[in-house]
Amino acid sequence: MDAEEFRRHAHRLVDWMADYMGTVESLPVKSRVAPGEVIGQLPTTAPQQGETFEAIFDDFRRIVMPGITHWQHPNFFAYFPANSSRPSVLAEMLMSTLGVNGMLWQTSPAATELETRVMQWLRDMIGLPPSFTGVIQDAASAATLCAILTARERALQGRGNRAGLNDAGAFTTYCSAETHSSIEKDVRIAGLGSENLRSIPIDEDFGIRIDLLQQAIAADRVAGRTPLLVTATVGGTANGGFDRVDALADICEREGLWLHVDAAWAGSAFVVPEARHLMKGCERADSVVLNPHKWLFTNFDCTAYFVRDPQALLDTFAIQRVYFDTAEQGRVIDYRDWGVPLGRRFRALKLWFVIRAYGVEGLQATIRQHIASAQEFASWIEASEDFEVMAPAKLALVVFRYHPEDVEDPAELDALNARLLAALNDDGRMYLTPGKTGGRATIRFSVGQTDTRRAHVEKAWEIIRETARSLR
Question: How far is CA 141 from CA 16, 146, 185, 189, 249, in A?
């Protein structure tokens, strides 16, 4: 493909992208293809000769698009959003064109220095103190893995990296029953083992039981294990629960444990000052993670990881080879030493575009609108005779279930809500995901897609009620 062909096809793609963004609301949110339907249309061997771009793009529309679940649909209320925005998409186009690998300052000085400045902006925007330093990771699970590995090597004074863990003994880590599944995966990857992860029951506010955490730490010390790290959940995936980070900080400071805060979803809301009471204590953590690709309108992937001691990251991850030597070494930041991967995409560019295009006030206004819409949705449920809110709706996640007055059997209620969820998703006008609260089946309603407005939430409530009553 020569330059002129590229120009012609690129213009065509941009037109298609703009049309898609403008019409995505008319599409079914969840893909309706059956398992194997996409791969069944793909040849079993790669083409021997190159094909025209027209043929490739036609197959994209014919084969790929029907298999897409539209995360950027304003009626996407599932999981947590992985939202996008037009400024971020434009930045992604530039990122792909430049093809930067920002592993060293020298390999693209702008990639390093822009990331440094943008992370300072974001730190200040969410109310973390200047004692924190930020770095962009690909996902929250990678950031949490960094926290676990750094805590491990701090406890072992680097011996784990040098000699392995054969003689290290058993390290224990702690989280609530509401903590994301990625925590257990990271514990496995770090070589600590799932059996040494303590999942502590939650209280009536869906936060970790402080008394049971203290008991678990004490029991592990008596058994000869080494307590290492506590992960605080700030905005749990299942029910939107918040741990009391200040109380956890007291324990970690007293016990000498690393305190990691997982605010992957909720952290973006802290650009709104009136939401910051939910992050009380985060300023005392050793590390904090949040995902701008969840609720700050920045394309996946872009995770913000803040640490109080950057040197601990370097001590854990830095490996020097002659091919990394540069004249500027020691005077600049080389982000290759700040996480697991050596290669690094120019993710700061899209976050920079988004913050500048929206401005802090524009970001605050959109997040406030999402929170207000979710809170209103919760109020409609509470006022309804046959629906109920199942967990406190503190930000933009509402966990609810259908509960007709004449149905009291728990198993029957679970089955009824499973049927309702399936019917709503099969209908195509919205996409929701299941939850479980107190052992009972629930439905999660997450507001946060970039273009979701009150009218979408109001229409969703109308469809939910109509669908639920049609099942009876």
Answer: 33, 9, 8, 11, 21
What is the pTM (predicted TM-score) of this model? 0.93
The CATH number, out of the four listed (3.40.80.10, 3.90.1260.10, 1.20.1250.20, 3.40.640.10), of the domain defined by the range 100-345:
3.40.640.10
Give residue 472's pLDDT band: very low, low, confident or very high (50, 70, 90): confident
Helix axes 140-156, 310-317, angle to 10 degrees: 80
Domains of the chain, by residue range, sit at 100-345
Using a 10 angstrom Cβ sphere, with 0-12 exposed, 13-18 middle and 19 or more buried, the burial of residue 292 is buried
Report residue 161: phi and psi, to 5°.
-65, -35
User: What average pLDDT does the chain have?
Assistant: 94
Q: How far apart are CA 9 and CA 57, in angstroms?
A: 10
Return the closest-CA partner of residue 21 out of 408, 299, 415, 423: 299
93-142, pLDDT tens digit by residue?
A: 999 999 999 999 889 999 999 999 999 999 999 999 999 999 999 999 99
In 3D, which of 148, 175, 153 has the Cα closest to residue 165?
Answer: 153
First to last CA, the chain: 59
Structure tokens at 289: 């993670």
Q: For the chain, how long is the longest CA-to-CA vector? A: 76
- pLDDT score recorded for residue 326: 87
